[in-house]
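Recall that a protein's primary structure is simply its ordered list of amino acids. Everything else, from secondary elements to tertiary packing, is in principle encoded there. The following example makes that idea concrete.
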Amino acid sequence: MKFFITAGGTGGHIYPALALYKELKERGHDVFFICSRRDRRFDDVEQLDFSRITIPAAPFARKNLFKNFKTLWVFTRAYLRCRNLIKTLKPDVCIGFGGYVTAPVLFASRMKKVPYVIFEQNAFPGLANRVFSGRAAAIILNFEAAKEKFKKSAKANCVVLGNPVRSGFTSVSKTEARKFFGLTAKDKVLGVIGGSQGALSINNSIAGIASKLNGIKLLWGTGVRDYEQMKKKNTAKNVSIFSFIERMDYFLAACDLVISRAGASSLSEIAVTSTPSILVPYPFAAADHQMSNALVFEKFGASVVIEDKPDLEDNLRENITGLFSKRNILSKMKIKAGTMYKPGTMVSIAGKIEGIGAAHG
C-alpha cells in the first residue's frame, strides 16, 4: 500500500510521525513524508531524501486576521500541489500528525476522496484536527480527555491508542543509564529538560537554585540557545550541563525526578521510562494544551504541575527538596508514570491504518 504522512512545526508533531513512517516502511509499504521547507531543520527529516516532499506552509494568525490574506494564498498553492501529488502518487491513506502544514494535505485528501486519519497527541486538540475531524476515517488519540473536545459526529471515530515515541528510543536499565553519565546507584539524580531549544524561565530558575540542592546530582539540558549563558551562570559542582540531550532514553532512565515542559512527546518518553516529573507547561502553547496534558498526568499521580510564573524558582526548589525527602512518594509517582504508557502503541496504530487502507483499496 501507499501512504502519505504529514507533520510539521515542532518535534512533538514530527517525531511520532517519523516513528510511524519507519514502521510502515519496515512493513513493506511505500510512504511519503510531506512537510514544509522549514521542517528540514530536523536532521531525521532531512535524511529522508527522495521520500520527503515539501509544500508551502504558513501559520494561521489567531489575533491579527489581516495577516491571513497571505496564509490563504500560501494554503491555496499548497492545496493545488497536494491535489497533484494525490493524482500522481495515488495514496491509499493520508495521515496527519498536526501542524499547519497538514491542513492543505487533509483538505486535498477530502476533496479527492482519499481516506485520511487524524492523529492527536494532546489532551486539547489542535485547530486543524478539530476542523478536519468530521470526515476522518479515524481519529487516533493519545489522551482519552481529548475525545470530549471533538464534535459529537466525530467522537464515534475516536480511538485511544497512545503516542509513538521517536525512533531509536530504547528501554534502558537505571544501572546502564547511570553508568553512561558517570553516576552511581546511590546518587540522587534530578534531570532538567526544556526541549531542543530549552526553556529560559526554567533555566534561569535552575541557575538560581542549583548550588542549593545539597546532595542532589543535576543533569541539566539547557537547550542550544541558552547553553553558553547557563554555563557561565552555573558555579555548582553537582551539575552536568548539556546543550542537547542526544540519548533521552538514557537521560530519563538515569533520573529519580525530571523537570520538563508538558509537550505530548516529552510526556510519552517520561511514561516509557516511568520517570516521576515536575511539569512546567509552556504558558503560550496554543489553547494552553500543555497545561491540559500536564493536568492529566498530575490527576493520575505521575507528576506535580507548577505554573510558569514569577515565583517559579521558589516553587521548584520547594517541590524538588520536598519530593527527594519523601522517597515513598517518588516511588509511587514512578509506578503511576509507567502506567501512563500504552505498550504496543506503534503496532496498534500501524494496524489501524493498514486496515483503513485495505478497505479503501
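The radius of gyration is 21 Å. Residues 306 and 315 are 7 Å apart (CA to CA).
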